[in-house]
Design brief:
Structural class: alpha+beta
Distance between the termini: 58 Å
Number of helices: 4
Helix content: 10-25%
Largest sheet: 6 strands, antiparallel, barrel
CATH architecture of the largest domain: Beta Barrel
CATH topology of the largest domain: Elongation Factor Tu (Ef-tu), domain 3
Length: 350
Protein backbone atom coordinates (compact mmCIF):
# COMPACT_ATOMS: atom_id res chain seq x y z
CA UNK A 1 0.00 0.00 0.00
CA UNK A 2 2.79 2.44 0.92
CA UNK A 3 4.55 1.52 -2.32
CA UNK A 4 1.43 2.44 -4.28
CA UNK A 5 1.24 5.81 -2.53
CA UNK A 6 4.91 6.52 -3.31
CA UNK A 7 4.36 5.67 -6.96
CA UNK A 8 1.32 7.99 -7.17
CA UNK A 9 3.24 10.84 -5.54
CA UNK A 10 6.12 10.36 -7.91
CA UNK A 11 3.75 10.42 -10.87
CA UNK A 12 2.14 13.63 -9.66
CA UNK A 13 5.51 15.30 -9.11
CA UNK A 14 6.62 14.21 -12.57
CA UNK A 15 3.44 15.52 -14.18
CA UNK A 16 3.75 18.83 -12.36
CA UNK A 17 7.32 19.15 -13.48
CA UNK A 18 6.29 18.48 -17.07
CA UNK A 19 3.62 21.15 -16.89
CA UNK A 20 6.04 23.68 -15.46
CA UNK A 21 8.53 22.82 -18.16
CA UNK A 22 5.81 23.16 -20.80
CA UNK A 23 4.75 26.53 -19.40
CA UNK A 24 8.37 27.73 -19.34
CA UNK A 25 8.76 26.54 -22.93
CA UNK A 26 5.56 28.23 -23.96
CA UNK A 27 6.62 31.41 -22.19
CA UNK A 28 9.88 31.41 -24.09
CA UNK A 29 8.26 30.93 -27.53
CA UNK A 30 7.10 34.17 -29.16
CA UNK A 31 3.61 33.83 -30.59
CA UNK A 32 2.89 36.17 -33.53
CA UNK A 33 -0.13 38.38 -32.83
CA UNK A 34 -1.91 41.34 -34.38
CA UNK A 35 -2.73 44.30 -32.17
CA UNK A 36 -4.67 47.54 -32.23
CA UNK A 37 -4.59 50.51 -29.90
CA UNK A 38 -7.53 50.84 -27.54
CA UNK A 39 -9.40 54.03 -28.44
CA UNK A 40 -12.68 55.76 -27.77
CA UNK A 41 -15.46 56.09 -30.35
CA UNK A 42 -19.22 55.94 -30.73
CA UNK A 43 -21.38 52.82 -30.57
CA UNK A 44 -25.07 52.36 -31.30
CA UNK A 45 -27.46 49.70 -30.11
CA UNK A 46 -29.97 48.93 -32.86
CA UNK A 47 -32.97 46.78 -33.60
CA UNK A 48 -33.43 45.59 -37.17
CA UNK A 49 -36.66 45.13 -39.06
CA UNK A 50 -37.73 44.97 -42.70
CA UNK A 51 -40.50 46.38 -44.83
CA UNK A 52 -41.51 47.97 -48.11
CA UNK A 53 -40.98 51.66 -48.85
CA UNK A 54 -43.62 53.73 -50.56
CA UNK A 55 -43.53 57.27 -51.98
CA UNK A 56 -44.78 60.54 -50.58
CA UNK A 57 -47.18 61.10 -53.44
CA UNK A 58 -48.65 59.22 -56.41
CA UNK A 59 -50.95 60.61 -59.08
CA UNK A 60 -52.52 58.92 -62.08
CA UNK A 61 -53.64 61.48 -64.65
CA UNK A 62 -56.48 60.47 -66.96
CA UNK A 63 -58.16 62.04 -69.97
CA UNK A 64 -61.29 64.03 -69.12
CA UNK A 65 -62.62 64.27 -72.66
CA UNK A 66 -62.67 62.11 -75.78
CA UNK A 67 -60.23 63.73 -78.20
CA UNK A 68 -57.17 63.27 -80.41
CA UNK A 69 -53.98 62.54 -78.43
CA UNK A 70 -50.50 64.08 -78.84
CA UNK A 71 -47.55 63.55 -76.47
CA UNK A 72 -45.67 66.74 -75.58
CA UNK A 73 -41.92 67.26 -75.23
CA UNK A 74 -39.86 67.50 -72.07
CA UNK A 75 -38.76 71.16 -71.93
CA UNK A 76 -35.51 70.19 -70.23
CA UNK A 77 -34.40 67.52 -72.73
CA UNK A 78 -36.17 68.59 -75.91
CA UNK A 79 -37.45 65.07 -76.59
CA UNK A 80 -40.84 63.58 -75.93
CA UNK A 81 -41.60 62.53 -72.38
CA UNK A 82 -40.39 59.09 -71.32
CA UNK A 83 -40.65 56.90 -68.24
CA UNK A 84 -37.98 57.92 -65.74
CA UNK A 85 -38.17 61.62 -66.65
CA UNK A 86 -38.46 64.03 -63.76
CA UNK A 87 -41.37 66.43 -64.01
CA UNK A 88 -42.20 69.68 -62.29
CA UNK A 89 -45.63 70.82 -61.18
CA UNK A 90 -47.18 72.60 -64.17
CA UNK A 91 -45.38 70.59 -66.87
CA UNK A 92 -47.62 69.70 -69.81
CA UNK A 93 -47.34 65.97 -70.52
CA UNK A 94 -49.86 65.60 -73.34
CA UNK A 95 -52.44 67.65 -75.25
CA UNK A 96 -55.71 66.89 -76.97
CA UNK A 97 -57.33 68.34 -80.07
CA UNK A 98 -61.09 68.55 -80.64
CA UNK A 99 -62.41 71.52 -82.60
CA UNK A 100 -66.02 70.74 -81.76
CA UNK A 101 -65.22 70.82 -78.04
CA UNK A 102 -63.32 74.12 -78.39
CA UNK A 103 -66.22 75.72 -80.25
CA UNK A 104 -68.65 74.63 -77.56
CA UNK A 105 -66.56 76.26 -74.84
CA UNK A 106 -66.52 79.65 -76.64
CA UNK A 107 -63.55 80.91 -74.64
CA UNK A 108 -62.97 84.07 -76.68
CA UNK A 109 -66.61 85.03 -76.42
CA UNK A 110 -66.52 84.58 -72.64
CA UNK A 111 -63.42 86.78 -72.38
CA UNK A 112 -65.11 89.52 -74.44
CA UNK A 113 -68.32 89.22 -72.44
CA UNK A 114 -66.36 89.81 -69.20
CA UNK A 115 -64.76 92.93 -70.66
CA UNK A 116 -68.17 94.31 -71.62
CA UNK A 117 -69.65 93.48 -68.21
CA UNK A 118 -66.76 95.14 -66.41
CA UNK A 119 -67.06 98.25 -68.57
CA UNK A 120 -70.80 98.42 -67.93
CA UNK A 121 -70.28 98.04 -64.17
CA UNK A 122 -67.80 100.92 -64.13
CA UNK A 123 -70.25 103.08 -66.07
CA UNK A 124 -73.12 102.28 -63.69
CA UNK A 125 -70.94 103.02 -60.63
CA UNK A 126 -70.03 106.43 -62.06
CA UNK A 127 -73.67 107.27 -62.82
CA UNK A 128 -74.82 106.09 -59.40
CA UNK A 129 -72.40 108.49 -57.69
CA UNK A 130 -73.99 111.33 -59.70
CA UNK A 131 -77.52 110.12 -59.06
CA UNK A 132 -78.07 109.07 -62.65
CA UNK A 133 -79.11 105.44 -61.93
CA UNK A 134 -80.81 103.62 -59.11
CA UNK A 135 -79.18 101.16 -56.70
CA UNK A 136 -81.17 98.37 -58.39
CA UNK A 137 -79.62 99.22 -61.78
CA UNK A 138 -76.15 99.27 -60.20
CA UNK A 139 -76.67 95.87 -58.57
CA UNK A 140 -77.91 94.41 -61.86
CA UNK A 141 -74.63 95.51 -63.45
CA UNK A 142 -72.73 93.89 -60.59
CA UNK A 143 -74.60 90.61 -61.06
CA UNK A 144 -73.87 90.66 -64.81
CA UNK A 145 -70.18 91.21 -64.10
CA UNK A 146 -70.04 88.35 -61.54
CA UNK A 147 -71.85 85.98 -63.92
CA UNK A 148 -69.48 86.91 -66.75
CA UNK A 149 -66.46 86.27 -64.48
CA UNK A 150 -67.74 82.83 -63.46
CA UNK A 151 -68.58 81.95 -67.06
CA UNK A 152 -65.04 82.80 -68.16
CA UNK A 153 -63.53 80.78 -65.28
CA UNK A 154 -65.71 77.82 -66.22
CA UNK A 155 -64.62 78.10 -69.86
CA UNK A 156 -60.97 78.14 -68.87
CA UNK A 157 -61.47 75.06 -66.67
CA UNK A 158 -63.08 73.35 -69.63
CA UNK A 159 -60.09 74.23 -71.81
CA UNK A 160 -57.71 72.73 -69.23
CA UNK A 161 -59.21 69.38 -70.21
CA UNK A 162 -57.33 69.77 -73.49
CA UNK A 163 -54.05 69.19 -71.66
CA UNK A 164 -52.56 66.71 -69.19
CA UNK A 165 -50.67 68.84 -66.66
CA UNK A 166 -48.61 67.48 -63.76
CA UNK A 167 -49.82 68.71 -60.39
CA UNK A 168 -46.77 67.50 -58.44
CA UNK A 169 -43.01 67.31 -58.78
CA UNK A 170 -41.93 63.73 -59.32
CA UNK A 171 -40.85 61.04 -61.76
CA UNK A 172 -42.84 59.41 -64.56
CA UNK A 173 -43.22 55.75 -63.62
CA UNK A 174 -45.81 54.74 -66.24
CA UNK A 175 -46.53 56.26 -69.64
CA UNK A 176 -48.87 54.15 -71.81
CA UNK A 177 -48.07 54.47 -75.50
CA UNK A 178 -50.60 56.00 -77.85
CA UNK A 179 -49.94 56.71 -81.51
CA UNK A 180 -50.01 60.48 -82.12
CA UNK A 181 -53.38 61.43 -83.55
CA UNK A 182 -55.16 58.51 -81.88
CA UNK A 183 -58.67 59.14 -80.58
CA UNK A 184 -58.50 58.72 -76.79
CA UNK A 185 -61.65 57.97 -74.84
CA UNK A 186 -62.61 59.70 -71.60
CA UNK A 187 -60.90 58.38 -68.44
CA UNK A 188 -57.98 56.74 -70.28
CA UNK A 189 -54.75 56.60 -68.20
CA UNK A 190 -52.26 59.02 -69.75
CA UNK A 191 -49.41 59.11 -67.20
CA UNK A 192 -48.53 57.99 -63.66
CA UNK A 193 -46.19 60.18 -61.60
CA UNK A 194 -44.58 59.49 -58.24
CA UNK A 195 -42.96 61.91 -55.84
CA UNK A 196 -40.41 59.82 -53.96
CA UNK A 197 -37.98 62.41 -52.71
CA UNK A 198 -39.49 61.44 -49.38
CA UNK A 199 -40.11 57.76 -48.66
CA UNK A 200 -42.20 56.08 -46.00
CA UNK A 201 -41.94 52.61 -44.51
CA UNK A 202 -44.31 50.66 -42.27
CA UNK A 203 -42.48 48.53 -39.70
CA UNK A 204 -43.43 46.12 -36.95
CA UNK A 205 -41.51 46.73 -33.72
CA UNK A 206 -41.32 44.22 -30.84
CA UNK A 207 -43.58 45.02 -27.88
CA UNK A 208 -40.67 45.40 -25.43
CA UNK A 209 -39.54 48.56 -27.25
CA UNK A 210 -42.91 50.33 -26.87
CA UNK A 211 -41.53 52.73 -24.28
CA UNK A 212 -38.15 53.04 -25.98
CA UNK A 213 -38.96 53.83 -29.61
CA UNK A 214 -40.34 57.37 -29.80
CA UNK A 215 -40.96 59.97 -32.47
CA UNK A 216 -37.67 61.25 -33.86
CA UNK A 217 -35.72 58.06 -33.12
CA UNK A 218 -32.92 57.85 -35.75
CA UNK A 219 -32.84 54.95 -38.19
CA UNK A 220 -30.83 53.74 -41.19
CA UNK A 221 -32.26 52.12 -44.33
CA UNK A 222 -30.39 49.75 -46.65
CA UNK A 223 -31.25 47.59 -49.64
CA UNK A 224 -29.27 44.78 -51.25
CA UNK A 225 -29.12 46.75 -54.53
CA UNK A 226 -27.31 49.63 -52.75
CA UNK A 227 -25.08 47.81 -50.23
CA UNK A 228 -22.57 50.65 -50.04
CA UNK A 229 -25.13 53.35 -49.28
CA UNK A 230 -27.09 53.94 -46.10
CA UNK A 231 -30.11 56.23 -46.12
CA UNK A 232 -30.59 58.35 -43.00
CA UNK A 233 -34.14 58.16 -41.67
CA UNK A 234 -36.20 58.61 -38.51
CA UNK A 235 -39.23 57.17 -36.79
CA UNK A 236 -42.03 59.70 -37.37
CA UNK A 237 -45.05 57.83 -35.98
CA UNK A 238 -45.70 54.97 -33.56
CA UNK A 239 -48.94 53.26 -32.65
CA UNK A 240 -49.85 52.93 -28.96
CA UNK A 241 -51.66 49.63 -29.69
CA UNK A 242 -50.06 46.17 -29.56
CA UNK A 243 -50.98 43.51 -32.11
CA UNK A 244 -52.22 40.59 -30.02
CA UNK A 245 -50.95 37.96 -32.46
CA UNK A 246 -47.48 39.22 -33.38
CA UNK A 247 -46.84 41.09 -30.08
CA UNK A 248 -45.59 44.05 -32.08
CA UNK A 249 -46.68 47.64 -32.60
CA UNK A 250 -46.71 49.61 -35.84
CA UNK A 251 -44.23 52.36 -36.62
CA UNK A 252 -43.67 54.61 -39.63
CA UNK A 253 -40.15 55.51 -40.72
CA UNK A 254 -39.56 58.51 -42.98
CA UNK A 255 -36.44 59.02 -45.10
CA UNK A 256 -35.19 61.87 -47.30
CA UNK A 257 -34.50 60.33 -50.71
CA UNK A 258 -33.08 63.33 -52.56
CA UNK A 259 -30.61 61.17 -54.52
CA UNK A 260 -33.37 58.73 -55.53
CA UNK A 261 -31.38 55.75 -54.23
CA UNK A 262 -34.54 54.15 -52.85
CA UNK A 263 -37.23 53.23 -55.34
CA UNK A 264 -40.93 52.82 -54.59
CA UNK A 265 -41.77 49.23 -53.72
CA UNK A 266 -38.26 48.29 -52.57
CA UNK A 267 -37.97 45.78 -49.73
CA UNK A 268 -35.48 47.35 -47.33
CA UNK A 269 -33.85 46.74 -43.98
CA UNK A 270 -34.34 49.33 -41.26
CA UNK A 271 -31.93 49.66 -38.35
CA UNK A 272 -33.52 51.74 -35.60
CA UNK A 273 -31.05 53.27 -33.15
CA UNK A 274 -32.27 52.35 -29.65
CA UNK A 275 -29.29 53.70 -27.72
CA UNK A 276 -26.07 55.52 -28.53
CA UNK A 277 -22.93 56.34 -26.57
CA UNK A 278 -20.11 58.61 -27.69
CA UNK A 279 -16.46 58.58 -26.69
CA UNK A 280 -16.43 55.13 -25.09
CA UNK A 281 -14.02 52.20 -25.42
CA UNK A 282 -15.24 49.89 -28.18
CA UNK A 283 -13.58 46.62 -29.24
CA UNK A 284 -14.34 43.85 -31.76
CA UNK A 285 -16.86 41.39 -30.39
CA UNK A 286 -15.15 38.36 -31.92
CA UNK A 287 -11.97 38.63 -29.82
CA UNK A 288 -13.74 38.25 -26.48
CA UNK A 289 -13.12 34.88 -24.79
CA UNK A 290 -15.50 33.25 -22.33
CA UNK A 291 -13.75 32.06 -19.17
CA UNK A 292 -14.92 30.91 -15.76
CA UNK A 293 -13.95 34.32 -14.44
CA UNK A 294 -16.04 36.04 -17.11
CA UNK A 295 -15.34 37.73 -20.44
CA UNK A 296 -11.64 38.19 -21.14
CA UNK A 297 -9.31 39.67 -23.74
CA UNK A 298 -5.53 39.85 -24.10
CA UNK A 299 -3.37 42.95 -24.11
CA UNK A 300 0.37 43.27 -24.66
CA UNK A 301 2.41 44.24 -21.58
CA UNK A 302 6.22 44.38 -21.91
CA UNK A 303 6.25 41.87 -24.73
CA UNK A 304 3.92 39.37 -23.04
CA UNK A 305 0.22 38.58 -23.24
CA UNK A 306 -1.78 39.70 -20.23
CA UNK A 307 -5.31 38.43 -19.76
CA UNK A 308 -7.90 41.03 -18.75
CA UNK A 309 -11.38 40.39 -17.38
CA UNK A 310 -13.74 42.98 -18.84
CA UNK A 311 -17.26 44.26 -18.17
CA UNK A 312 -19.26 45.04 -21.32
CA UNK A 313 -22.13 47.40 -22.13
CA UNK A 314 -23.81 48.19 -25.45
CA UNK A 315 -23.39 45.64 -28.23
CA UNK A 316 -23.79 45.54 -32.00
CA UNK A 317 -23.41 42.60 -34.33
CA UNK A 318 -19.65 43.18 -34.54
CA UNK A 319 -18.59 45.46 -31.66
CA UNK A 320 -19.07 45.86 -27.93
CA UNK A 321 -18.58 48.65 -25.41
CA UNK A 322 -16.10 47.98 -22.57
CA UNK A 323 -17.16 49.52 -19.28
CA UNK A 324 -14.28 48.22 -17.18
CA UNK A 325 -11.02 46.28 -17.70
CA UNK A 326 -9.31 48.23 -20.50
CA UNK A 327 -7.59 51.60 -20.73
CA UNK A 328 -7.13 53.93 -23.66
CA UNK A 329 -3.89 53.44 -25.67
CA UNK A 330 -3.30 49.89 -24.43
CA UNK A 331 -2.37 47.44 -27.17
CA UNK A 332 -5.24 45.01 -27.61
CA UNK A 333 -4.48 41.65 -29.26
CA UNK A 334 -6.94 41.15 -32.14
CA UNK A 335 -5.44 38.13 -33.91
CA UNK A 336 -3.46 35.10 -32.75
CA UNK A 337 -5.13 35.23 -29.32
CA UNK A 338 -6.58 31.71 -29.64
CA UNK A 339 -3.35 29.96 -28.60
CA UNK A 340 -2.26 32.40 -25.92
CA UNK A 341 -1.88 31.70 -22.24
CA UNK A 342 -1.08 34.03 -19.34
CA UNK A 343 2.34 35.64 -19.65
CA UNK A 344 2.99 34.18 -23.14
CA UNK A 345 5.72 36.01 -25.03
CA UNK A 346 4.34 37.60 -28.19
CA UNK A 347 5.73 39.03 -31.41
CA UNK A 348 3.65 41.88 -32.77
CA UNK A 349 2.94 41.75 -36.49
CA UNK A 350 0.73 44.43 -37.98
Amino acid sequence: MKRLIYISLAALIFAAGCRQQEQRLQADVEVPVGVTDVTRKSIEEIISTTGTVYPKGVIELRSRISATYYLERNPRTGRQWQMGDRVMAGDVIARFEDREFINSVRLEAQELNLELAESELQKQESLYEKGGVTLRELNNARVSFINAKYSLESARLQMERMQIISTIEGVIVDLPYYTPGTQIETNAVIVKIMDYKTMYMDVKIPEKYLGTIVKGQPAKLTNYTIPNDTIAAAVTQTSPAIDSESRTFKGIITADNNNYLLRPGMFVKADIVVNRKDSVIVIPKEIILSRQRGKTVYVVTQGRATERVILTGLETNTEVEVLRGLNVDERLITSGYETLGPNTRVQIIR
